Each structure stands twice: as structure tokens, then as C-alpha cells.
Batch of 2 targets.
Target 1
Amino acid sequence: MIKHRLPLLFFAVAALATPYSVQRIFLHTGIEKKMGTVQKIFYFHVPLAWIMMALGITCGVAAAIQLRKAATGRSRMAESLSIAAGELVLVTGLGVLITGPIWGHATWGRAWTWDARQVSTGLLWLVFAAFVLLRRYGAAGSERLAAALAVFGAVDVPVIYYAVKIWKTTHPTTDVVGSLPAQMWNSLWPALGALVCLTVGVLLVRIRQEQDAAELDDAWIALDDRGRALTLGGAP
Amino acid sequence: MRREDAPAAATAKPDKDDAYEPVTGRDQETVQCVRACEAEAAAKTASDYEHVVWAYGVLWSLFAGYGVLLWRRAVAQRQDLAELRRRIDEA
């Protein structure tokens, strides 16, 4: 019962935290001096990027567990988690890849500058798009290839994080977030909380769906096998 | 007429608010410059808000779209389960 109610709890918290964070961002946080009002995109763009990276790692780790346990038997939980997290990387990644260029268009004058962080984020999205497509339309046995792809995608996450330190990019360095004034942090936390609750809620729903789908498949196969056995047994 | 003969009201000092003060300070060039800066700032703010609305709109639309997709999958799953139950009852 708790398992079924848990996503609702996360959605309820997200429903409360979202309007609270939006009013904090627009009514109680000053306008940034250099960028102006457009900097308010930051409060959802950055947490969404963090969530995307966390989901990428989650998907990669779950896929690695799935690959490791493949020899001893299927790990349903790991498989469901990797599929759910992989799909959410696509959703959050698309959010990051759209809100970022909107912000860049207003601040840098160009939506896409081909800097290392943008390119590595785009690459992550493409890898997970391939993962999701392979999981959905791949033939039998393709789940192992998809899992390997997810592990490869997870390796890209540290590249995204360190891209601003290694290469010269239009993105600011990772130190900028740490040096934010308290007023901005106080608005960033509720926005992060709202997005985390929403994502975890959706993730739990998707995991449950995937487990149900697997159980349904098993039931259909068992029914078909039973029918076939009865037909063979009943044959003269 | 001597100065001392003037009516008292005429010689009394006017209230501070009503006192005439000649306009000083901004010349026409400065005023135009300020107006241009204000117009630029207003245009920047309007553009910023447009970008913010687009970004926030896209973000929440993505989650809403994915929510609809999950709901449709759940409906299909329920139909599949109902069909399975019907087949089991038949068997």
C-alpha cells in the first residue's frame, strides 16, 4: 500500500514546493546585476541539469547491475530502474537542452555556442535516446546491448561536470554556484526540492509500470504455454 | 509709496511648497540620454521576461507531456490485464 502511495506523497510535496519556489524566485530574490531578469531561468535550469546527471548515473549503475546479474538470472528491479531512469534522462535532458539555449540567447547573444558542456550534454542525451529506442524496439537479447550503452552514457556525466574546468567554455565554472549569495541559495533550494520530488514521483510510477508490464508478459507466456500443453496433451 | 507701506500679504514670505524655484539641472541632451537608457532597460526587461516565460513553459510542458504518456501507458496496461483475466476465465 505504501509503495502505491509513495509517488503521490512526492507529487503532493512537489505541488506545494513549486508555487512556493516560483514566488520566492520572482518576489523575494533580487535581480542579478550582470544578466538581469533572465538569470531567473537559472533556478530551474541548474537543478534540472543536476537531476539529469544523477539520473544518468542511476541508469548506468542499474544497467551495470543488470549486466552483472544476467549470468545468474534477471534482475527485474535493476532493469526497471534503468529503463525508468533512462527515459527520465531524456525528459530532463531535453529540458536542460532547451532552457539552456533560451538563457544563452538572452545572455550570450547566441543560443548554441558549441562549448564543451553543451556538446557533452547533447551527447549524453543522444546516448540515452539510443538506449530508450533500443529498449523499446530492439529484438530479443538487445537489452544487454542497451545496458552496455547506458553504462557508456553514465561515463559521460563526469565529462559534463568537468568540461568547464578542462576546456575553455562559455559556461561559468562550477565555483559560481558555490559563491552565490544566501538570497539566491534560499530560492535555489525550494526549486531543487520541487524538481527532485516531481522526478522521484515520476520515477517510482515508471518503475512500477515496468514491473507490472514484465509480470503481465510472464502471465501471458504462462497462459500460452498452458494452452499449448493442453492442446498437445489432448491430441489423439 | 514707501516700501513699508506695502500690504502685509505682499511682503509675507510664501509657503515653502509654493515657492518658485527655477528649473535647473538636466539639459535636453541629458534628458534624451536618460530616456534612451530607460527605453533600452524596458526593452531588455521585456525580452528577459519573454525568455523566462518560454523556459518555464517548456520545462513544465515536458513534464506534463511525459505525465500524459505515462497515463496512456497505464490505461493500455489495465486493458491488457482485463484481456488476460478474460482469457483465464475462458480457459
Target 2
Amino acid sequence: MRYLLVEDNSELAEAILKRLAMDGHAIDHAATLAEAEDCLAAASYDLILLDVMLPDGDGREFLSRSRAHLETPVIVLTARAQVSDRVGALDQGADDYITKPFDFSELEARCRAVLRRRGGSARNQIALGAALFDPLAGTLQHDGTTLDLRNREIRLLEIFARHPGQILSKSQVMDHLFSYDAEVTENAIEVYVGRLRRRIAGMGVRIDTVRGLGYRMETDDK
Amino acid sequence: MIHTASIGQRLTLLLAGVAALLSLLSWGMVRSLAAQAAAHTQDNVLAASATTIAETLRSEQGAVRLELPYAAFAMLGAISEDRVYYRVSSGDTVLTGYDDLPAPAPGIMGQVVFDTGRYRGAPIRLASVMRVVLAGADRVVVTVTVAQTRDGVDAVISDISRLAGILSVAFFFVAVALSAIAARMSLRPLNQIAASVSRRGPGDLRPLSRAAPADLAPLLTALNRLMERLRLSLRRSEDFIAEAAHRVRTPLATVRVQAEIALRTVSDETEKERLRRIIRAVDESARSAGQLLDHATVAYRVEELARDRLNLAELAAQSAAGMEPTASMREIHLALDLTPAQVRGDAVLLDSAIRNVLDNAIKYSAEDTTVTLKVETVGSNAHLRVLDEGPGLGDGPKELLMERFQRGGNIAGVIGSGLGLTIASEVLRAHGGHIELHNNENGSGACVTLVLPLA
């Protein structure tokens, strides 16, 4: 995924950049609307994360100005949970909004919802054994059929797909899977891993339990 | 508030005083006019009578002779039963009549002179006329005086003044009644303004635009200025809260992202737990700030409540779509069961109410459960129900949950500020609706119903 982040607070921007990079996304940063225009002229993005209050103007005005020629979906970042703010942003062509501070898995969920509404994009598909996994659409294609996955299944499969052959600890999996306010037992992870194993059964890929260490995804032919 | 006598009472009292004065004045005027008229009539008759007597004077063999004409007295008898006195004299010699009848002051020859006096214990009116009679070679000046008591005149005057008195009293009472009506009518615009101010909702600070008499314009202007000031100060505090939220939440966002990054990079389990705690604390304060802001926004928007025609089912579908990613994070399925229901209101506020209720349901539900959103019409109301499969609302009084910062007794471990239901409840109240809270009858879970009157 290639993101464009338009955010003037350098501390926050740096942190978001780093966090998205950890998930393997490419991300460009613009601190002003003018920089954002330059970025958009130079490259194409899957998604724009747009702050509302910027030094050279209001993000919402930028939206209504550029919506006509801009096809990239936009998620507005706002510090005001204010309802009028949100409706204003949606009216002016934002696809969704998220309030600061946000949970990255919620941001991902919203991005996924937006991209799914916009029809997804083929370049994000990952081959898993005999199946094609589209983390944005949340689908698994195998043998001519398309399987819709649920949120946790997508996230679980995504972390395994991004680290093929590596051992992932239960703690790593847990942080990727649950928001931090939920009291999660390791047992819950076993439940989800068990569910995902049934979903991918027969697709030429499997999740092994590595006793005392965690889990590892392997393709059958290896 | 200190109550002084009402303007209406004061005005009525003042007008009644004026009416009393006018009644008294008109009574006095009628009385004096009547007295004048009666006296004038008596004077005319007295004058005529004196003149008639004077004209019968003639000289006969050098002496003045007089034949009292009957007509002269008949005239006087015609107007009343009063006693009549007369005297005809020449110098100090009384030719005929009552010797002791007082003589009026001498006047000009041939002209009638009037006077009032007392005779035999009664007030009398006198008229006298002088005439020159040629008696042989002498010119003799003869004075004829006719007098009459005043009983008849007084009777006429007292009759008329009694009648005038009755009329004046009647006039007074009619005037008082009219004053009371006039006072009430002139106070009506004031009462109407008072009524239109007190009819307003608690947050309605629009200027008063009703037409009012020019006298009330200063009051209206002052009232409108006060409301404008109030509105500005509300708006300022709203802007202040928004700005504060922005200032607080951006650094919080940085803290949260940094904590997430750290959580990914450290491997020590105690440190991880520490980081999770940081994230939970950030979420809690962000949530409180957000709901405080929402609360302020609702308070502000209610003041100028939009009354658009809305399909509650469509609105609910949109709100649910907005909450879908949040629900999917907890593997909660949002089930929709929507029948169209037209209502009137502010889409932004209603959306905020629905989201707050949905957010509660999602937050308190176990993972892998279903939250159902239902819209239906019941009688003359639209019902929007949010049913969850969570722990329910506990056994405490449910109304308390709608008060600020009140949270249920069975929700340990869930982040919340206790403002969600308060916000929703305020929105519903502004729309003439209300919220009902129940525990589900079949099985566990809570049912929150937003009741709105149909358009």
C-alpha cells in the first residue's frame, strides 16, 4: 500500500510514518497542502490521510477543491470528534474520518472499508500457497471461488503472510489482533488460529504451532 | 424577584382618579349652569313684572297713581309657588306695597337693577326699575321694586344637581371599567413578549423578531442584546473546548502511536504490559475529551435545532455504516432491521445520538456477538432500538444512567466517560422524544430505545 500523509505536526507525522512502515507500507509525508499537491502530481497513492487543520489552509477546502480530479480515497484525520466537523468532511468528499488519537487497527479497518467500497486494488494481492489473499478486500481466492474473511481472520492472515516462514510469538500475534483495552487470554488467540486453520485448509498453506515459541506459516510445497 | 404594584393596577388606579376628578368637575359645572339658568329665568320674570307695574304708573291731578296689573303677579305665580313682595315708592314715600322691603341701590333711569337679600327670614331676589312720572309740573321719580323668595329656584337647582350627581357616579364607574380594559389591552404586547420568551426552549437564544409597539422597542433591543451576549459566550466556550480538544488530542495521538511502535519493538513482557497500560490511559482521556466536546456541541446545536424531514431508517443505516469498522474490530456483527419512518430533526445530532448508543452496545458486548439496530413505527412514534447481547444494564435505576458521568455498576474494565447516554438523551429531548432503557426479556443484553415523534 502506498499512503500519502498530510499532517503538519511533525512529531505525530514521524510516528505515523514509522508505524505504517512497520506494517510494510510505503508512505510519503506532506506538511502543507502545497506539498500535498506536489506529491499528488508526482506519484499515485492508494490512500490519502488528511489532517483538517493545516498551516496553509483547511483540509476540507483542499478536499472540495481537488475532489473533481482526485480519484484516491481520502480519510480525514481530525482532532475534533465534533459531529459537525465530520459531516462537513464527508460532504466535501472524504471517504471516512478518524479522530485522533486512533488505534492503528481501527485505521486499517477503516482503510479496508473505504478501499472495499472503492473496489480495492489488484496490486495488493499476496500469493499464499495455491490461494490469492487480498488483505484490502479481505478475500481469499482459491480454485475459482472467493472466500470473504472476517476482520480478525484478515488481520491474522495478514501478519502471517507478511512474515512467511518466521516464528511469531503469541504476544506479537495478540498485539496485532486485539485492541489494547480488551483483556485477552492466550486461549483466545488459539481460538482464532484454529478458525483460520479451518478457513485455509486445502489451499496449500498451513499454520504450525511451535511449542513454547508461537506460530509459523508454511506453504505445503516447502 | 421583588414585586411592586403591577403596571396594570397602577394604570387603572391613575385612570380611575382622573375619571373621579372629571366626574366631580362635570357635576359642579352642570350644577352651576343649572343655578345660573334658573336665576336668569327668575330675573327675567322679575324684570318683566317690575317693568309692567312701572308702565301702569300715571299722573292724575298732580299725584302719581297706580293700578296694580294682575298680569304682573300672574307671571311670577306661573313659575313657582314662591311668595312675591312689591313696593312702589317715590323718594322716601312708599306709595303702595311692603314698607320694609329692602330697596336696591339706585340704578340708571329706565333700567332694571337686580339684587339679592333677606326678607322675613327668607332669601329673596329683587328687581327694581325707576321711572319718571310727570305729575303736573313736577317730575316725580318713582321706583318699582318686585321681590320673590328663592325656593323654586333652589328646588330646580337641587333636582338638577341630584340628577347630575347620579350621572357623574355612573360615568365614574363606566370610566373605571374602561380604564381596566384599556390597561389590560395596552399591556397585551408586553405579556405576549413575556409569553414568547418563556415558551422558548432552554437553549433557544435567537433574537426576538415579533412586531412590538414602539414603546417596547428599547426593552426588546435590550433583551436581544442580552441574548446575543449569552450566545457569544456560549459560542466562545464551544470554540474554546474545540481548541482545547485539538491541543490535547494531537499530542495524545503522538503518544499513542509511539507507544504502539514501542510495543512492537520491545520483547520484555512486563514492559509490554506497561505500554498497553499507557495506550489504555491515552484512549480513556481521548474518549473523555471527545465526549465532552460532543456534549458541548450538542448543547450548542440544540439552540438552533434544524427541523429537516428525515427518514430515520436511512439515517440509522448511515450511522451504522460509520460504526461498522469499530464493530468489526471486536468481531461484532451489526444486524439491521429497518422500516422507513419519517421524522423531523437535525441529522447531525440524531447521528451523534445513534452512534453514542451503538458505541455503548459495541463496547459492552462480548466479542463474536450481534448488535441489532431496528427502526419501526409504533403508534405516532418512530422507535429506534439497539439490542445487544452484553451483560445488560444491571439492576440499578436505569434513569440514572442518562445523567452526566454516571456509569452502570457492572462494567468494570471498559473504558468510558459516562457521557454517551447523556448526549443521546439530550438530543432526543430536544427533538421532543426520549430514551427508554430495558434489559432484554429473552436472554441477556440491553435494549436502548430512542423514541421520536413521527413527522
